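S., here's the first fold you wanted:
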Amino acid sequence: MSGGAREPGRSVTSKVLAILGAFDAARPQLTLTELAARSGVPLSTAHRLVGELEEWQALSRSPDGRLRVGPRLWELGQLAPNRLQELAHPWLQELFGSTGENVHLAVRDGLEVLYVDKVYGRRAVPIVSRIGGRLPMHPTGVGKALLAYEPDWFVKSYLARKLERPTAQTITEPGRLARELAAVRAQGHALTYEEMTLGSCSAAAPVLVDGRAVAALGIVLSSRRARELPRLVEPLRAAAAGIATAYGG
């Protein structure tokens, strides 16, 4: 946290938000000491506020005593309108039903993809995406499908950054990645092979509304079955087009 987080005169609201904001996907559970350190709230104040948040069920405790986000916040989160998710979900279910593979929907949020929906089954290959989770754009199929339709200035700015490399297969060379994005735009879909996670490959198609990618629909399967990806492209693109029609109509 920045030094300003410990400045006197912070409002109670800012302290509560800092406490709630201390949790993330990498740290879904924290001790009180960890929570105070990450939020920049003094331990005694954190202890008092955490007690009130627990009483309101904004926070709860795991069996080992660590704190985690409580059910009340989940309930509030469900009230946030997400028209895209509501319209797209039947298409995700249909695509999963016809393929039996992991299907997810993502949007761009800053320099990352934000997963807004997902349908999966017990027999599908495990994947790292989760609803509400974020991943970098360039190693993911949905990320490439979104990035390919961004304005040139955005793509150039993205490629100029130091790009993380989750696996040895991740494409990080700007020139090569730019050519791949051009191919995605020309073909209307993206393919990846073990770029985000070893053992999995993916196909993704943009959800285009008036030429703009408002989201991307992806399907993930085991890399041992990578040869099956081409046959999944058409149903994937058809589902993405269906979502686009429903959303843009």
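And the second, which I think is the more interesting of the pair:
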Amino acid sequence: MKIAIDLGHGVGQDRGAVGVIAEETIINTVGALVISKLKDLGHEVIEVRPIGELSVGQSLAARVQKADSNNVDLFVSLHANAGGGVGTEVFTYNAKEVPEARAVLNNIVALGFTDRGIKDGSKLYVVRNPSATAMLIEVCFVDTQSDVDLYNSIGTEAIANAIVNGLTGQVANNSKGYVVTTYLPNAYEGYDGIDINYVLSYFPGSRAYMKHNNKGMWIETQMLPIEKCNELKETLGYWFYSIEQ
């Protein structure tokens, strides 16, 4: 599927709403994950936010024009709300019941946000004008402390996964995991024990947890970015067992 992802605002003087958190922070952070996860699942992503000092009108027109020129299947605009409310809402043209929009809304609500429903977005340029089916997602309210607290506690990874699953019906890959070592060797031959300080020197800057069963002891790390997991894999050598998610 070819999907246009519109990271709302972020052009010229149009930086979006600011409250407890900046709307632009949510858009850029969640949006980057959504784009990456869609690509990982094999979808073609057209990023339509323009670059340059454009007026709001020029910026909106450029987004739609780029999507239309690429003949996308879906146009998805990412935003966060303001005005003192709570919850998540998705705008479609005339509040049409678009399956992908409903799935995105249901998935985000399932994380704990209040369901504000599918709303009429016929007055919104990026909902009204694209040739493809379009939706605008308002993740949460940037000026409501409870919404921001929930956003922070849930985390951008889970929110991005909810959006990607709603758009595609596929389960997005997590970009984090933890490293599991093999059973650790004794400190030296004839000594029934493990040099913990030496072992932990392989995990600088990461929490490491000792695990054991009747066969021996091993280490599992905290959740880490996959890039860090792969670095540890190379560092550990034959001590490495697996990366789990």
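Why I say that: The chain has a mean pLDDT of 92. The helical segments are 23-40, 56-69, 99-110, 125-128, 145-154, 156-168, 196-200, 226-236.

Talk tomorrow,
H.
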